[in-house]
C-alpha cells in the first residue's frame, strides 16, 4: 500500500467537490487502479464548508477510516482559508492546490507549511467563468491535479468527462468542461 | 407491612389499579388486544375523578409513545400500555425514551406479531424491543403484575437510573384470567413510590434546558450511549434494593431470578412469564418420580441477571431454556442465547438446550414440559446428546 | 458565549455530559457561528439607505443589527450572516450589495 494517495477536498457546498472527488476516483478506475471517494456525511447547505475525500491505490484498499494525513489537499474556495485549517495533518512532502488569484509563493508563506510541501495555485474560478460560464471550479481543479501530481492522467480525465457528463449535459457543456481542464493544466503555477 | 385486601381480578385490572395508586400525571395510550381493558379501566378511573391524570387519547401507538416522551420530558410521571403490533409501531420511540432517560412505565401484554394474524400470547413483541434500552420485567401471575408495576416506578425514577421500564404480562393467560391478588392500601403505595422529582424538566421555566439535541458529526453520541449502558448496569442494584423494600412492605419475595427446588437439582428449566407455573407443577411431579428437577424463573430480563443465572445453573447436569419467541436465523431463542452465553466462562461445561414453545398462544400443555424434563434427564445421564433448538410440540 | 462552557467538549468523558444530553442553558444557538458558510457578504451604502428596516424584517438569521430604530453602524452580524442575499434582494432602494468574500489570502491582504 506504499503508493496509496489520499486526497482531501475543501470546498463550499455547491462548488462540485463531491462530483470532483468521484470523477477523480472514476479516473483512477479507468487507469485500472483501486479507489474510494466519500463525502463527509452531514447536512448539506449551499455555501457551508464541506470536505470530500478520495483514495487511489494500485492495490486493493481495505481501510475505511477517515483520511487524517492526506498527501494532497485541494481547496476550491480560498475564502475557506480563513475558516478551515486546510493543511491539518498534511504529510511533510504533500501537495496543496488552491483556487486563488494569489501567487503560489505568497500562498505558501500564508499557509505556513513545511518546505517539502508543494503549493500550487490557479484561478480556477476565472477559468470556470470563461469556459463553463459559471463559478463551478471543480473540473479545472482536476486539470491542475493532473498537472501537479501523478494521481490522475489528463487524457483519462477528459475522456471520462465525455462519458459521465454525457449522461447529464449537452455537448456544449462537455466541451466547456474539457476546455476548463486543459486551461487549468496549462495555467496552474507551482511555488 | 401494608394493609392488604385479597381480591379476585384480572392481570389487566391490576395494572389499571396499580396505575391509579401510583398516580401518573399523564397517560397516553391507544387500545390494542389484549391490552385494551387496561386503558379502558384506567380511562374510567380518570373519568370518575379517582385519579388526577391527564389522559391523552391518540391515534396510534406511535403517537402514544411520542406523547409519553413529550410529557415525561416536560417533567411528568408518565404511564402507558400496549401489545404486539402496537409495541412494534412504537419501536423508534422506545429508543428515544431510553436515550432521553425518561422513566416512562409501560405495561406490555405479550402477544404474537403478524403474519399470520394472531392475537394470542407469545414474547415476540417484547423480544423485538429487548435492545431498546428499557428495563424489562416479566410476571408469572397477576400478583406479580401488580407488584412489578408498583416497583417499576421507584426503579425507573431512581436518579442513578432514569430509564423507562416495561412490565410484561402474558396476553390472555395473565391479562384476562381472574386470579387471586393481594392489593395494598393506597397510602402504602403512595409512600412507597414517593413523589417524582424530575431532573431537567422542560416545564421548569426558571432553569431552561434543551432536550433531544444533535450529537452527530463527530459529536458525543457514543459517549451518551455509554452513559445509557452505565445506567442500565447500575439499575440492577436499584432493582434489587427496591425489590427488597417492596418485599418488606408486601410480604412477597422478589428476585431478579426466582428459583424453585434448585438446592439439589440436577436438571433445570429456565423460563419467563406465566409458563413458570406449568413448569413448577411438572417439576414437582418429576421429583415424585425421582428426577431432581428445578426451575429458574427470570423476572428481570433487562438488565440480564448474568451472575444470578451463573450461580443458579453452574452445577446443573442439563439445562433447558424455554423461549416463547424465535430469533429467526440465530442458533436459538433470545433467552437461550443469553443463558448459554452467561455460562460460557464457567470452568465446567453445562449442557444447555433450547425449546421454542407456545408461539401465537399455542397451548403449553404439561406433557410438553414433561418432555423437556425427560430430555434433560437423558442428557444428564449421557443417554441422549445435545439437540440444540427444537420447536416444542409443533407438528 | 453562553454560561455553559463547551469549549473542551470533544475531550469530555461520558460522565461529564449533562444527563440525557440536555443543554442546560437557554439561547445558546447564538454560540453556533454560521458566518463561515458565507461566500458573499452584504455591504450597506449608508448614503442610499433610508433605514426602512426591511432588511431587518426579512433576514432569516436575525443578523441585521438595529439600534434606536435605525440600522446600527456595524449593520451586519457577520458571525451569523450566511450571505444568502435576501437583504440585498429585498432592499427597496438597492442600498445593499453582496461582495465576494476572501478574494485574497489573509496575510497577503
What is the level 1 CATH name of the largest domain in chain B? Answer: Alpha Beta
Structural class of chain A: alpha/beta
Mean pLDDT over the full residue set of chain A: 91
Quick one: how many beta strands of chain B? 15
Give a quick account of the main beta sheet of chain B: strands, pairing sense, barrel closure.
Answer: 7 strands, mixed
Q: N-to-C terminal Cα separation of chain B, in Å?
A: 50 Å
| Overall mean pLDDT of chain B | 96
- Evaluate the radius of gyration of chain B: 21 Å
Q: Strand sequence of the main sheet of chain B, in spatial order?
A: 3-2-4-5-7-6-12
Please give the domain count of chain A.
Answer: 1
Assign the structural class of chain B, choosing from mainly alpha, mainly beta, alpha/beta, alpha+beta, or little secondary structure: alpha/beta
Which pair of chains forms the biggest interface, and how many residues does each contribute?
Answer: B-C, 22 and 17 residues
Number of helices of chain B: 13
Based on the coordinates given, report the CATH architecture of the largest domain in chain B: 3-Layer(aba) Sandwich
Shape of chain B from CA axes? Answer: globular
List the defining traits of the structure above:
heterotrimer; A: 191 residues; alpha/beta; Pyruvate-ferredoxin Oxidoreductase, domain 3; 7-stranded mixed beta sheet; 7 strands; 37% helix; B: 395 residues; Rossmann fold; 2 domains; 6-stranded mixed beta sheet; 19% strand
Task: Write up this protein.
The complex is a heterotrimer of chains A (191), B (395) and C (109). Chain A has one domain (5-190): Pyruvate-ferredoxin oxidoreductase, PFOR, domain III (Pyruvate-ferredoxin Oxidoreductase, domain 3, 3-Layer(aba) Sandwich). Helices cover 37% and strands 20% of the residues of chain A. Chain A has helices at residues 17-30, 104-111, 124-131, 138-148, 154-166, 171-187, and strands at residues 5-12, 34-39, 49-57, 72-75, 95-99, 118-122, 189-190. Chain A has a seven-stranded mixed β-sheet with strand order 2-3-1-4-5-6-7, sandwiched between helices. In chain A, β5, α2 and β6 (118-122) form a beta-alpha-beta unit. The mean pLDDT of chain A is 91. Chain B is of the alpha/beta class and 395 residues long. Chain B has two domains: 4-250, Thiamin diphosphate (ThDP)-binding fold, Pyr/PP domains (Rossmann fold), CATH 3.40.50; 257-391, Rossmann fold (3-Layer(aba) Sandwich). Chain B has a seven-stranded mixed β-sheet, with helices on both faces. In chain B, strands 9-11-10-13-14-15 form a six-stranded mixed β-sheet, sandwiched between helices. The relative contact order of chain B is 0.12. Chain C has a domain at 34-102: Alpha-Beta Plaits, CATH 3.30.70. Chain C has two helices and four strands; from the N terminus they run βαββαβ. In chain C, the strands form two sheets. In chain C, strands 1-4 form a two-stranded antiparallel sheet. In chain C, β2 and β3 form a beta hairpin. Residues 103-109 of chain C have low confidence and may be disordered. The interface between B and C is medium-sized, with 22 and 17 residues.
